[in-house]
Amino acid sequence: MPQVKSCGIGGQVMSLFRRTSSSSTRAANRRTPKIRKDETRTKLLCSAPALFIALAASSADAADRPVPTKAPSPSQTCTVNWYQGWYVGLNFGAGGYTAYRTDQDGQLINVVNGQLINVTTYTQRQSGIFGGGGQFGYNWTTCNGLFGFEVDGSHGSIVVSTAVLPNSPNADVSITSRFNDLVTARVRTGIVMDNVLLYVTGGVAAVHTLTTYLNFVGDQFTFSDWRTGWVAGIGAELAITSNISARSEVLYVGAGDRTFTFVSPTLGPGNFAHSDSMWIARVGINVKLGFDPAIPTY
Length: 298
Fold this sequence. Notes:
Order of helices and strands: EEHHEEEEEEEEEEE
Strand content: over 45%
Helix content: 10-25%
CATH topology of the largest domain: Porin
Structural class: mainly beta
Low-confidence stretches: 1-25
Distance between the termini: 85 Å
CATH architecture of the largest domain: Beta Barrel
Radius of gyration: 49 Å
Number of strands: 13
Oligomer: single chain
Largest sheet: 8 strands, antiparallel, barrel
Shape: elongated
Mean pLDDT: 78
Number of helices: 2
């Protein structure tokens, strides 16, 4: 019976066929197809361990290689933090002043064209240079946003005078109103684009006005007062250096109404209602106190 080849680790093949007599040669030749099939099966069996060893070595080599990892992206930061922190500054502005003065008892003049006048409202408007002042505040910023608060004060004067009887040469009846001082406490929020800040602002205001009345009997009386109100506006700021910025803003101020009483020796008591509003356009400069480190981007 024929025997199949065996394979060793080194690949040596031993002949397992025994020599037979010459008489059996023809019988062996008749079995050649079957022997060749056995040899093919033997070669496949011998190659399987080698293939397994190669695959195992490849897997071990892959396991030894480090797994590639994605490098973390660097943290983005503001290279220069223009507006973060405390600041102080100066401002200078002009504006439009509107004063509403209501004579509730005809104290100034109670007869017009032969008719008795009890209540008269006089509207006074004047525009011009107002004055200047200063401000301080604090900002919290990211690279693209800002929130802060500011307190400012300005002193100046816009004066408007109204003649109650402009066509009467014998009567000097008038109202003179002065807008003298403005103090605001506001919050600001806006968008920062590189070194440019665009913002909206709003808060509370305190307004000082002075009003002088002259009635038709020659009595003169003056009311000087502070009144609270509200303020809102928009503005823009440009950082020139790391701690100096130029700014401009437009504010609308509305002062609360108030009624004052005056007792004339001749005409008796009279009541006057005051209501004031202002448009303020001003420019200024801010100086940041210290330098804050760069702030991460959100």
